[in-house]
Every structure is written in C-alpha cells, then in structure tokens.
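so im writing up the methods section and need the ATP-binding cassette domain-containing protein record in one place, dumping it here so i stop losing it
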Amino acid sequence: MLEVSNLHKRFGDVVALDGVSFSIKPGELTGFVGANGAGKTTTMRIMMGVLNNDSGEVVHGGKPVVGDMRTRWGYMPEERGLYPKMKVAEQIAYFGQLHGMSPADAKSATADLLEQLELTARAKDDVQDLSLGNQQRVQLAVSLVHTPEVLVLDEPFSGLDPLAVDVMAESLKRRASSGVPVLFSSHQLELMERICDSVVIISGGKIIAKGTVEQLRSDAVKQLRLNVETSADLTDVLPGTVTRDGDDYLVADAPDSQAVLAAAQAAGPINSFGYDRPSLAEIFREVVAK
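--- predicted struct ---
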C-alpha cells in the first residue's frame, strides 16, 4: 500500500497543500485530477523527495518513505529530463544503470521497453530528432527501465496523439497488473475514466473526492434523463428541477421517478427514460463547484 498522509506545504503566504491524504493499493492505477495550481505537482514532488513537506508523511509498505527508498520508484516529471543529443536506446540503458542495473540487464530491459512502446525503429536516433510524442515514450521508458516498485507520473499523456495515448495507457496498465501502485495526473478525464481503478480529485490544496469512478458517480447528484416524442416544452410540466440537454430533459430533485414518468407519458411516447450516468468531467465540475 502506498499512502499519502496529511501533507501540508506552504510557499510563503500561499497554502499549496492543506492536509492531502489518499492511498493506492498494490496493482491499482490511480488518476490524480485537478485544475492547474490545485496541488498535483507539489504532491508528487513531495512524494518523490524533490520538495520537502511542512508536515505529514508518505508511507509505502507500512514504512515512512525516506532517503534512498525512492531509488526503487519510477518518476516522470512534468518538465522532461532527457539528454537531447543522446541516442534513444543508450539513454534508457544509461538511466537503468544509474538505478543500479548491470549493463547487460539495462540493455535487455531497454530492448523490451522499446518493443512495448513501439520505439524499436528509433533506437539509434537522437532524442532531439524525435517528435514530442516519441520523446514522451522515451521519458516513460526511462521511468520504467529499472522495474520500479512505485510509479509516479506527472502529465504523462500531455501532447500525445490518440495512438500514442493507447500505447502508453497499455504500458501503465501492464505495470499496474504486476502489482505496482501507479499514480498519474492528467487533464484527459475521458482517458482516466476508461483506464483508472480509482480517482483522486484535488482543489485548492485539498482532496475533495476520491474513490472508483462508480463510487464517485453514486455520490454525484442523481438526475433522470428522458426523451419524449413531443413538440411541447416540458420544462415547466415535469416535477423537479428540469433542464434541457439537446432533445433530452434532465430532471434533478424529482420527488418520485414514477411521477416524472407519468407526466412524460401524458405528453407523448417515451423514447428513453432512466438515471443519467455522469462522466468524470461532469463529476469533477460538480465537486469543484461545491
């Protein structure tokens, strides 16, 4: 278990983190969601020892994380740290050796990652000659080469095309399936909804929601979505708080779903009727607005 417990951090008069706490189980792929400046990068930097926290702690396997315990972790910072004039394969193997791997093991792990991330054909290219997306793949390979026990990735999908997103997502899922706790931040909420086991939402340096997407959906405001075959406007006819979404009606605060159904049936044939399933983006907007 990877646990972040009651982290606090100030920069002068600015409170960056105010009691941030969450946990990630072994093998769990967790998305870290928040607007710019919400505290995601600060949290990740503290987890990796890049920043010192004012109070609180990071715990892995029941032990506070200190010093060289992080050498067995994989980190992908928001600001990339590659050597632009170094060959792709040489660079990945080099970082593996920095983590204590033998040259032979680092070379073997590099070959496997080049294949997984579809970079084999670019192995002998300078990093500076790669597209942004391929540079992102190399940066991920650098964070994975030493088979880390924990993965912390800050915006790993930034700037990637859909095919590159799929390649990287599969690689992260593969690592999580081996028992590694994985935390990554991203503004691509549809992607998080698709691949994450759990989601942590931060705003203003505080955790405001966490859990699986289904748990977050169950906590969200429940509303009915219905489509009625009628030319009449049912906004003032249906019981509850009614809004329009194209041709559909959304009903919140309905005293009784059957009462809504009866009112809709009186207006015309029902094309669809049921509780709405909010997207992660809608859940995010709702909890941040509270």
